[in-house]
Amino acid sequence: MVKVCIIGTGYVGLPTGVGLAELGHDVVCVDKDEVKVQSLQRAQATLYEDGLEDLLKKNITAGKINFSTSMADSVPNADLVILAVGTPPHPVTHEADMQYIYAATQELAQYLKDYTVVAIKSTVPVGTGDRVEQMIRQNNPNADFDVVSLPEFLREGFAVHDFFHPDRVVVGSNSERATQVIQDLYAGFPDKVNMLLVKRRSSETIKYASNAFLAIKIHYINEMANFCEKAGADVLEVAKGMGMDSRIGPKFLNPGPGFGGSCFPKDTMAMAYMARMNDVMMTLIEDVIKENAVRKKQMAGRILNMVKDIEKPKIAVLGLAFKNGTDDCRESPAMEILDELLKNDVHVTVYDPKAMANAQKILGDKVAYAPDMYDALTGADVLALLTEWDDFKELDLSRLAQSMHHKNIVDCRNLLSPEQALQHGFKYQGIGR
Length: 433
Ligand code: NAD
Fold this sequence. Notes:
Blueprint: E1 3-7, H1 13-22, E2 26-30, H2 34-41, H3 52-61, E3 65-68, H4 71-74, E4 80-83, H5 99-109, E5 116-120, H6 128-139, E6 145-149, H7 159-164, E7 169-172, H8 176-185, E8 195-198, H9 200-231, H10 235-243, H11 264-277, H12 283-306, E9 314-318, H13 333-341, E10 347-351, H14 356-363, E11 368-369, H15 373-377, E12 382-385, H16 390-393, H17 397-403, E13 408-411, H18 418-423, E14 427-429
Parallel strand pairs: 1-2, 1-4, 2-3, 4-5, 5-6, 7-8, 9-10, 9-12, 10-11, 12-13, 13-14
Helix pairs in contact: 1-3, 5-6, 9-11, 9-12, 11-12, 12-13
This protein binds nicotinamide-adenine-dinucleotide (NAD).
The site of nicotinamide-adenine-dinucleotide has 26 residues, from helix 5.
């Protein structure tokens, strides 16, 4: 059993803390956000992930996990402190903004007591491990500690599943003693963990290299979708055929409105920035970042084009989260598409099964919020499907045909059958087919 203190209870820190508690470790999660901590202390999850709240309740009741706003109370008792605070893009340079990492490091340094491993789980630029080590030493010269890189690869929407069944665990450590603590942490996992031990700087690079690669793969199939639309091919058939090649693999070949979320946009920008700072040109990543932004404008254009002859058209948007299974709207393609739509004289009603509260924080009163998907569609001139929730695949098209004012669908996630949409009299536009 490892005594763990996690700093930051967001989309990474909370599932990690709850998962480690479930495996029998003693966990305390620290966050500066008092409202969040109070809610978690009452066993109310502060974000949506399938299965998270049940595990949270179970482990609070079992006394395996606690929540606190105080590092002074939590850090001294820990064998392992995990940093899971945000590293958002810097508003001007687009490099990773390290203010939260450095503030947390400075604070925790003063409370280190016996030998402690400080693991950086946040996605951080190469060399951050060295910088954090230096800061701790400056703030607490007598501290007995090691800093390791422990990047996180979980997928939002599947965070609990991915915690218990990681493809791999990458550990960047320059110390055998620290590596042993991390090995103890993963000893009780249900499946044997595929652990890769590497240099700290390699570990930091693996995270960015992986996310940039996945973003490029998504953009590739989006460009292929554009080609298929012109060439009369079906991108879903093309993706299936490509994915059967074991060198390519079937994942991340779903064409859509462009990648988004709290990771790919910021991590591609941070990778490009780091490359420039090291005098390395990564033109592929630079181009993908630019073209991915263009794609969202193009999607908005498709929606507006469907209703170009209608005065103040009513647009129904289904899906606000950046992907299914999460309530996270950070950098969601839906938010950027809505931003474009709202530059025009349109009326927009939105619905999402989980992300309404988070979307409302971004969109305010610029749109109307519907209580369910059919309500959003009543009297609409066009339906725009922007997130791949399973519920939307079950839409009753005959009911829509009755309740919509004009029968137009822009399906940015290829959720519906084009044939069925046409049978019900809809003008339908999917992606790449
Ligand atoms: P988040 O914004 O959801 O959560 C960060 C939390 O840290 C917030 O609750 C904030 O209040 C807290 N915090 C900030 N400074 C603090 C401090 N000094 N002391 C205590 N708490 C503090 O962020 P997230 O999405 O969980 O991402 C965290 C890191 O993990 C980022 O670097 C991100 O790139 C990386 N990551 C995220 C994902 C993902 O799917 N979200 C996946 C892999 C890696």
